[in-house]
Design goal:
4-stranded parallel β-sheet; EC 2.1.3.2; single chain; 9 strands; binds phosphoric acid mono(formamide)ester; globular; amino acid binding; 14% strand; 5-stranded parallel β-sheet; alpha/beta
Length: 309
């Protein structure tokens, strides 16, 4: 592959190859040196048109641990504010000969469009409601490490599915790897036609969580709710917030996940989120660096081969 724009074009063997490579970067990141020179001489530009803590920090650390020259564009201070378009901005940066562009954008499809205009490898760091592929890959690695496998698991994705690129990429990745995926949420927060994705749909947490291996909670994405249904936080927590009582329906060794940022007391009980016997939320963050190192390693390898050809 030339770019990493989504999970959709990936084969199960591609997913396994990225996760296997990421395992080596978990070890490297835990070592004293933390460093490789695999991307020495390469330039990585991070363009985040939307807020981020985890994704931006981990892409920056990933690039630096691989020895790349990493530049974070301050998009709020860029000439986008003077009316320059996304494509003109991309062409301008392309002329500076970057090797890797990491892009987050509020519009679905914007990163695909940009990738068609530049010569380097593009990594989608989240585009609108469309995809967030490295999130799904870091979630897959976290599950594989916690459960010892990434197939034939029962996985519940809960909450605001309709507005979530994390849910979309996870549904694609987890079904490709032959897991049973259940979506749990109020009808207003489940997208139309979701049945076509090969998932089961539930509107009741107690029912949907019965005997699952993995519980993945999502944030209510109010910034994407344009005038439609916005539940009160109290009511939402009562019906859909994960607490010990609802979790007791899942398998006794079920793990609890959340991509972050998390709203404690809205979609998840704060004590449960901090319970290291159940919650793997901090592991997800750690796996994020390793998976992004692996994705950039593999794309840089392909880029070098194309240039040498
Ligand atoms: N999970 C995730 O994408 O978090 P950020 O928005 O903080 O990057």
């Amino acid at each position: 592959h030339r770019h990493l724009l989504g999970i959709e074009p990936l084969a199960p063997t591609d997913i396994s190859a990225i996760l296997d490579r990421a395992e080596t970067y978990v070890d490297l990141s835990r070592s004293d040196s933390k460093h490789s020179d695999l991307l020495a001489g390469m330039t990585q530009i991070n363009m985040f048109f939307e807020n981020s803590t985890r994704t931006q920090a981990s892409f920056e650390l990933a690039g630096k641990r691989l020895g790349a020259d990493v530049m974070n564009m301050a998009m709020q201070a860029s000439s986008i504010k003077k009316g320059e378009t996304l494509i003109d901005t991309a062409l301008t940066l392309n002329a500076m000969q970057p090797d890797l562009l990491v892009v987050r954008h509020p519009n679905s499809g914007a990163v695909d469009l940009l990738a068609q205009k530049v010569h380097c490898a593009v990594l989608n760091a989240g585009d609108g409601r469309h995809e967030h592929p490295t999130q799904a890959l870091l979630d897959a690695l976290t599950i594989r490490r916690a459960k010892g496998r990434l197939h034939r698991l029962s996985i519940a994705i809960c909450g605001d599915i309709a507005h979530s690129r994390v849910a979309r990429s996870n549904i694609l990745a987890l079904t490709k790897m032959e897991n049973r995926v259940r979506l749990i949420g109020p009808p207003t927060l489940l997208p139309a036609g979701i049945g076509e994705f090969g998932v089961e749909v539930f509107h009741d947490m107690h029912e949907g969580l019965e005997d699952v291996d993995v519980v993945m909670m999502l944030r209510l994405q109010r910034e994407r709710m344009d005038g439609g249904f916005i539940p009160s936080e109290r009511e939402y927590y009562h019906r859909y917030g994960l607490d010990a009582d609802k979790l007791s329906r899942a398998k006794s060794d079920a793990i609890v996940m959340h991509p972050g940022p998390m709203n404690r007391g809205v979609e998840i009980d704060g004590t449960l989120a901090d319970d290291i016997n159940r919650s793997v939320i901090q592991d997800q963050v750690e796996m994020g660096v390793a998976v992004r190192m692996a994705a950039m390693d593999l794309l840089a390898h392909n880029l070098r081969e194309r240039r040498a050809a």
